[in-house]
Amino acid sequence: xxxxxxxxxxxxxxxxxxxxxxxxxxxxxxxxxxxxxxxxxxxxxxxxxxxxxxxxxxxxxxxxxxxxxxxxxxxxxxxxxxxxxxxxxxxxxxxxxxxxxxxxxxxxxxxxxxxxxxxxxxxxxxxxxxxxxxxxxxxxxxxxxxxxxxxxxxxxxxxxxxxxxxxxxxxxxxxxxxxxxxxxxxxxxxxxxxxxxxxxxxxxxxxxxxxxxxxxxxxxxxxxxxxxxxxxxxxxxxxxxxxxxxxxxxxxxxxxxxxxxxxxxxxxxxxxxxxxxxxxxxxxxxxxxxxxxxxxxxxxxxxxxxxxxxxxxxxxxxxxxxxxxxxxxxxxxxxxxxxxxxxxxxxxxxxxxxxxxxxxxxxxxxxxxxxxxxxxxxxxxxxxxxxxxxxxxxxxxxxxxxxxxxxxxxxxxxxxxxxxxxxxxxxxxxxxxxxxxxxxxxxxxxxxxxxxxxxxxxxxxxxxxxxxxxxxxxxxxxxxxxxxxxxxxxxxxxxxxxxxxxxxxxxxxxxxxxxxxx
Length: 518
Known about the structure:
It contains 20 helices and 21 strands. Strands 3-2-1-6-13-12 form a six-stranded mixed beta sheet. Strands 16-17-15-14-20-21 form a six-stranded mixed beta sheet, sandwiched between helices. A three-stranded antiparallel beta sheet has the order 4-5-8. Helices cover 41% and strands 17% of the residues. The relative contact order is 0.13. By secondary structure, the protein is of the alpha+beta class. Strand 4 and strand 5 form a beta hairpin.
């Protein structure tokens, strides 16, 4: 009896393989830490061959830990970290190490594209803003600085596409990553107008076919089956980019409630469900991402380069100070006791803008020079006042992102490591004036990929049907906003936006200073 589905999620930090039963219950999993290297010029690269070897290893471990997986697995789907550029030659071998979404070497090119004559054509077709980490930005950098990478390449992949090639022998990408870089969100195909406006018409040869993994699968190669202990010929679906698979696995695809979804992890992702192409909202700053679900609907999202990285940073300073005085405390230990103290501190005594990433910010505005800062501090602000402002910034940044996409949804689902924090949930609900709810699922990305495979194999009629069976039963009760705190955040948010708009000249001046000091 084939009653299991496998979801593979090759994230930035960890590669995971998870076995689910047909009701969406996680039965077994295996994982392995990822490794990547950071270069002096802002490049961030990952060994493509090692990534594939690690994927084989976690699939083998999963097969060993889950009884009868080889014969019981109906199908598998793979997702992975988005953006970046993973180039292969005509033989399917890596041209270079993969460039990750963390890569910031093309910041000049990102700014240039954002200000070019064709930007209205680019944004109007893709409905997605230009950032430093996208393949279209990397293409321009490579043309100028390393043209041999492009001349040696036959296909330009993203992480999951590379794994799919190795699993099935097929060169393909999913509609989401194809469209937000080079396509038209309405017809879900590559756009010659966009490629021309980007100055990349000559590189169309590198773009792989677009495949909907909820409608099409390919057979697992015999050699891969032998290496992993899985069944040769098992159907394999190409999942969407990891953030969209996480949205599927967390229930964003809900036509009735049309929720929002916030992924509060190292980075912050804020999404809303969009019924069809006509309901997509384009914003004056030309930012965010628009990604098609299988079917007619979309997810619109704004993404913060850094979310809980800001909390890790400020608590890391505290841990460093304590350790210097002989008090052994880790960031995780400080996190365990911080919620009550954060909620007890008064909001608005200091303001913090959470742009701690060296790549700047990409949502709801794009500026590679953006940097984090405290403002409004006087001598009465203590340590917990500063920490509170960092926590507040997570909720304020989320509101900034949601407002760029239209009306704030009537319910926000929250996943990611910080979703366990009472303080984060309380502040987010108040700042958005919307109830929040979590769900009992640890691996939303792998689950979303597996749900696509289930639809492809006819287990469910479509993604909505899969959501009703796999997500609705694990939703926790709504947590409603505190009205007095919500009133306070209305005032704080107005100042938050005004301040960050006024900081842009300061960021540019500081960026020029850093360039002179190199």
